[in-house]
Predict the structure.
Amino acid sequence: MAVGQDNRESSAGLKAGFVEGARAAGLDIVDIGIVTTPILYFATAHWKLDGGANITGSHNPVEYNGVKMVHPGAAPLTEQEIQGLRETIERGAFATGAGGLTTRNPRDDYFDTIAKIVRLERPLKVVADAGNGIAGVYGPPLLRRLGCEVIELHCESDGRFPNHLPDPEDPENVVDLQQKVVETGADLGLAWDGDADRVGVIDERGRRHEADLILVLLARDLLTRHPGAKVVFDVKSSQVLVDEVRKHGGVPVMWKTGHSHLKRKMREDRILLGGEVSGHMFFAEGYYGVDDGILAACKVAEIAARDEGPVSKMFDSVPHLHATPELKAPCPDGEKFKVIEELARDLKARFETIDIDGARVLFPGGGWGLVRASNTNP
């Protein structure tokens, strides 16, 4: 299996422990170094390995860390499989063996693959903000290879994240990028989270655009090559996305929030494109059906380069609806799913409701509201 890590200060020690334990259980390890999580996915699928694991805290604060694991082909683990691993650990019921250890660098294979998928018709001036996460090592050089002029912002690798958290979903974390795009007269601003499986986009006017509107542009592009294709997205996405996919001849598929849920749905239904409001974008057209923030950034640049007009024009072509910000109500982890289940039951009795993940209420006037329990936060 492939094993990698992000650039957090705690990641090297955690990876060493993971590798030691995996080898003691008889697994042969391919150490791929300090990589983005999508590159870990890529290496697992591209090299046809039996699995992969990346030590990463993703977009979370510095003190957090964890591991993202995948099956062959970079298929996600189910919740039941993760709980099964926990039970195995608690029982101490481990296999024994003496696995080997090799090192291999996936960078060239990854860059070559993306360069075959993405072609820019004209050069763009791009500001790239990695928030000092590992994306800064891979995103700017790949964009340059594709023909972009790249201005780097917070791209020095520093797992303490001294400038801002690498989390483009939070508008506060892209303020520096917005200012730099306007200041330098760039065509486009691109931001990534800590392990580069999510993307944020800023137009030349310094405006930040929500991820479901980015998916609208990606869906329009896909549907020119695959008329009638399905596009999957999470239940938090706007009605604009649903309407735009239909308008351009596609089939919108709403599904549960969570990158593992969406990847599994893509595999089950052979869907070529997906995304969620948090900024994960999933690609199966000529790729492995995984979320990749750097590939998403390259695809946005490719779409922008087809038009001589500004990037803002692309986004202005998407209908705009007003949305209230997300509100997070405190609720104990042990109670939150029960609370949502009871709320959903009550709402369903009074309104038209989509209940694949919490309750998305469709109001008579055309609006909607969603209440759900977070899978990852208290």
